[in-house]
Amino acid sequence: MKNLVMHGAEPFFFPGGSTGCLLIHGFTGTPKEMRWMGEYLSKKGFTILAIRLAGHATDPEDMRRSRWRDWLASVEDGVTLLRSTCRKVYTAGLSMGGVLSLIAASHYPINGAVAISTPYDMPHDWRLPFIKPLSMIIRNIAKGEADWQNSEAAKDHAEYPYYPSAAILQLQALLVDMRAGLKGISVPILLVHSEMDQSISYENMDRIYQKLGTRDKT
């Protein structure tokens, strides 16, 4: 029996005009974290599709079995669905969703991409060089206090309570694919990052910006 999607964390679709936006949530997150953006853009007349990445929003065990290419396939499906109804398609992602948004810009026929609080590389952590053998012993990695600065926002958030260690290996591989494709991107790119971000440092945005091939980057 398949695990059910977490309450309130389901994918959503808001039909609108001929320009579509694919919203992509982050690592261990759910479509719910993209809901406010989706509602705002929908009011502006865009067609909105917020996808659920493979292994997310159900049970952490599902994520443990997922591979980075499964997450990319979720994005490809979303792009294909939007292109069947929209003349122009853009992607917008948060954190790992931003990584996938940039990969979409290098892999798929889209018109532009937005990457929000997106890592260029993994953060400094002494455990990362040993994550492959550690993942066989330590199945889960606790989330740090820095993940949430706004306790009120955290109350209404839907996500897994920890990081499946095997999935961290997949995130590393996904970042390798993103970095390899940055130079080949030719569509407009918007990068957004808070200087106060304590989970993914602000310097990541500049590193991505410098590597982008497109001249139309903000």
Plain-language structure description:
The chain has 218 residues and is α/β, with parallel strands linked by helices. 36% of the residues lie in helices and 16% in strands. It has eight helices and eight strands, in the order ββαβααβαβαβαβαβα. It has helices at 35-43, 60-65, 68-83, 96-107, 131-135, 151-155, 165-181, 203-211, and strands spanning 12-14, 19-24, 47-50, 88-94, 112-116, 140-142, 162-164, 189-192. A six-stranded mixed sheet has the order 1-3-2-4-5-8, with helices on both faces. Strands 6-7 form a two-stranded antiparallel sheet. Strand 4 (88-94), helix 4 (96-107) and strand 5 form a beta-alpha-beta unit. The mean pLDDT is 88.
Question: Quick gist of this model?
Answer:
The chain is an alpha/beta fold and 218 residues long. It has helices at residues 35-43, 60-65, 68-83, 96-107, 131-135, 151-155, 165-181, 203-211; strands at residues 12-14, 19-24, 47-50, 88-94, 112-116, 140-142, 162-164, 189-192.
Highlighted features:
218 residues; alpha/beta; six-stranded mixed β-sheet; two-stranded antiparallel ribbon; 8 helices; 8 strands; globular
Q: Which helices and strands occur, and which strands form pairs?
A:
Layout: E1 12-14, E2 19-24, H1 35-43, E3 47-50, H2 60-65, H3 68-83, E4 88-94, H4 96-107, E5 112-116, H5 131-135, E6 140-142, H6 151-155, E7 162-164, H7 165-181, E8 189-192, H8 203-211
Parallel strand pairs: 2-3, 2-4, 4-5, 5-8
Antiparallel strand pairs: 1-3, 6-7
Average pLDDT confidence is: 88
Q: How many distinct helices?
A: 8
Give the amount of beta strand, in percent: 15-25%
Instruction: Tell the overall outline.
Output: globular
Question: Radius of gyration, rounded?
Answer: 17 Å
